[in-house]
Each structure stands twice: as structure tokens, then as C-alpha cells.
Amino acid sequence: xxxxxxxxxxxxxxxxxxxxxxxxxxxxxxxxxxxxxxxxxxxxxxxxxxxxxxxxxxxxxxxxxxxxxxxxxxxxxxxxxxxxxxxxxxxxxxxxxx
Length: 98
What we know:
Blueprint: H1 3-12, H2 18-37, E1 42-44, E2 48-55, E3 58-61, E4 68-71, E5 74-81, H3 83-89, H4 91-97
Antiparallel strand pairs: 1-2, 2-5, 3-4
């Protein structure tokens, strides 16, 4: 699913214009990005949670030349799906656990 597909889904839920759907989707994405940039954790019940993980600096290797390369520390976004979402994606495993 693309962003445009998501806008179409939102627009189809009611008497919204395409522009209204775009504003809604952009607002949600902007809010998630803004919260992650400020270091907050986002939890959407039944869907999952987004947070930032800190990666330490390390020594890597250039795969082409084999040369050692210093990789700096960085923050990366991380998504952890909720149990409900995992069960919906893998219904066979959910039945076995019951």
C-alpha cells in the first residue's frame, strides 16, 4: 500500500475531498515523525509502538574493498507490532497458542 492508496482509503470513509484525505494522512505522519524526533515513544493500541533506538559507533568494512570504515553512532526508528497485529497477520500461530 502506498501513501496515495492510504489517502484514497481515508477519503472513501466519508464525504471528504482528496485534499482533506491528504491533510489527514500528512498530519498523522507528521505527528509520528515529530514525536520520534523529540525522543517520544508512540503507542497505538492494537497496532504497535514506534520508538527510537540508539546504535553505538562501530567499525565496519567496505564490502567492495574490505577497507575498515568507522560507522558513527546514530538514532534509528524502530517499530514493534502489538500482539493483536501479530495474531491477525499469523492466524495459524494464534490458533495454536490458544
